[in-house]
Amino acid sequence: MRIAILGSGSIGGTLGKKWAAAGHDVAFGVRDARNPDVTKLLASIPARGRAVSLEAAIGTAEVVLFAVPGTAVASIVETLGPALAGRILVDASNNVGSSVLNNVAELAKCAGAKVFRAFNSLGWENFENPRFGDVDADLFYCGPDGDARAAVESLIQDIGLRPIRVGGIERAAEVDGVAALWFALVFGQKMGRNLAFKVLMR
User: Fold this and answer.
1) Rounded Cα–Cα distance for residues 175 and 188 (Å)
2) Where are the beta strands (DSSP E) in the chain?
3) Does residue 12 sit within a domain?
4) Is 134 helix (H, G, I), strand (E, B) or coil?
5) How many structural domains comprise the chain?
6) In this structure, is residue 174 part of a structural domain?
7) In a domain, 27, yes or no
8) 43: domain range?
9) Residues 93-136: pLDDT tens digits?
């Protein structure tokens, strides 16, 4: 699968490494491809990873993951909205300190885009190592049904997580609630960042 990751920080970088290792073509959209942190990231990724401009990364991508600060999403959509049209867009950004944590409303402005909310409710450590003993952590997400859903679930599984769909994109607030709980336990209760969730059923 051809994946554009906008951002190369802890979340985007960790996901990109895992997806490249799984055989996907990964392009990081960055402001400066010569940044030492970007160079270091690329050195840790197989030949399938590269760093280019935001627009070049989107290029022929089938999936675009937003792993930039939440405040940057609106300007990217305003500038590159036509290039994002019709693609699978995954909002992994968080508007920390805002009343609305997600940016799905901004992404929905891109004509024909299939918008998902995912990869925002756990720390990068859980993406790097999603296993707790012999149990895989769950990742809560939401978005439309159909082929796009199958693609997103496949990407979640490639990270080593079990996908748990909460519903359509109108359920973004519920997914954000999981993120708020993670923040409360990790930072408020000081339980440490290696913390994840599991749905149990009989």
Assistant:
1) 19
2) 2-6, 25-29, 49-52, 63-66, 88-91, 114-117, 131-132, 135-136, 138-141, 162-165
3) yes
4) coil
5) 1
6) yes
7) yes
8) 2-188
9) 999 989 999 999 999 999 999 999 999 999 999 999 999 999 99
